[in-house]
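[job 4471] stage=fold_predict status=RUNNING
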Amino acid sequence: MTARTVTDVPRPPERVKPRETRLRALDGLRLVAALMVAAYHYGGRGGDVTKAWGSSAQQQFPTLHGYFAYGCLGVQVFFVISGFVICMSGWGRPLTSFFASRASRLLPAYWAAVVLVTVVFALPVVAYHAVSPSDALVNLTMLQQPLGVDRVLGVCWTLWAEIRFYVLFALFVVLPGATRQRVIFFCAGWTLAYAITQGAQMPLLEIVLMPEHAPFFIGGVGLYLVHRDRTDVHAWGIVAVSFLIGQHYAVRSLWNAADPNAFAHRTTFGIVLVVAFGFVTVAAIALGWLNWANWRWLTVAGALTYPFYLVHEHLGWVAITAYHQTLHIPSYGTFLLTVATMLLLAWLINHYVEKQLTPRLRSALAKSRS
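[job 4471] inference complete, writing structure tokens
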């Protein structure tokens, strides 16, 4: 009997691993999505921003206001990115570490933004009303949306959607341990569950399963599976189904078919195109096609996106009033100055709040208790 050679020894199948540890293009896309939302809030809608400008944004931006109206779809792009990032960061991580990572990432900048907006709106020279002290305190919990409490930050409704996604992903993927099969079952099960919930008109389960947002989170999760293995047919199927359903919800929510001449009207084609942009761009990043966009400044851009997103709307109104109505700076100059001011404020929050509190909070939450 002859000895077996090294080449005869069976080898375990190699796991397909992601091609990049830091996807800087994803950081850049985050900033693009945030700027899309800012464009919508400053020049693509009515409401309180009209008071800031002194007239309708349609009058301020007669050429671009129609394009700015699509900026609200930056939220859907954010959700696709979130699905990708949460699956990537939760893979192989214990539940305590996952919870610590998410809480420490969201809370410091959020707390700072809530306090800052509450204080600024309480100033006599500011024309906007602050929420009551009691409601402001509830806002610090991030649960003001389901509790029906007045919101300090208009954009915080998206954080409520993010929290529900984190909980679902933690319970069904992180807690039992992330595997390809488990993630696929999670995506398929969630898709079927929210479809049944929508069809059966069950409000309680709609709050939990959030049919209008789920396709974007699930699509992002599917794209992370593609990032791990670009030949994964099941992952591509998840992405395709999520896009098809996601664009339906986006069109249903944002297409103003009843009054095509209304301000901020959006066409069906335009909405589908922007949703497709989100999916296709994250897919290009997942496939490695944008690995050439590896500039360090994109990491900085990614770090500023979240605090910018939190403060840009409400404090943007204050900045627009100061630049446009007090200093008489033209509309486009005011728009650019307001964005720059909010980015500077985001840098200050990131530098003096997030960098100081995030690692400490993460360390405190990650400590195991016997």
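[job 4471] summary: Confidence is low (pLDDT under 50) at residues 1-20.
[job 4471] exit 0
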